[in-house]
Amino acid sequence: MTALTGNGTAQALNDKLAELDLAGRLALVAGLGGRAVFTTSLGIEDQVITAAIGTERLPIDVSTLETGRLFKETVDLIAETEDQYGITITRYHPRKEDIDAYAAQYGLNGFYESVEARHACCGVRKLKPLARALEGASFWITGLRRGQSGNRADTPFAEFDAERGLIKINPLADWDIERINAYVADNAVPVNPMHKRGYPSIGCEPCTRAIKPGEPERAGRWWWENDEKRECGLHVPESALPSLESSAL
To answer: How far apart are CA 25 and CA 64, in angstroms?
Structure first.
């Protein structure tokens, strides 16, 4: 396989993916060679991607970041999804020493106190496990969609992730929630029951609430912060995040 590096290659792949349906997009990436990893949060769009991978039996590794603070419904859905599609979803957990270091500096629930502390928690529970999940990967597949938030409105199908040195694939970039719901209904895709209780976007339990009528899909994430473009750091450059007081985190 030709090395897939740089924005030019990502743009060429982006143009090819735009012409295909979901199964075709995933099959194209799976056939390029190199390790392809899909990281799922078990949200409804991620379940659509998992269903396509499992149904088509594509050689794509499916992984999840089991942060230790997930809702029980989310954890239960991991096993249900594995059973339905005959796949293994690899769990990546935060390391105890990192959790202990965070708690010593900020307190276990210190993420409520400052944006810096919240990003530090996401760093320990998400970013470090993600780095392990993506070791040796050429492609990182995600469930990002343009309709999820204003911060994601320009999401491409493929982009070069310079910090991680791989191509990031967003096969549902152009799907709206209506299309997602239709796919789930038509294909009997298992989904988190919390979606019907007003949680369109579900993260860690302490950091997620149901949204109010008229709010954007991700308004319930880190709701106590004022920044409308708030993210955990998985999908923004590390340089754009608040600096941390301790390099140990």
So the answer is: 21
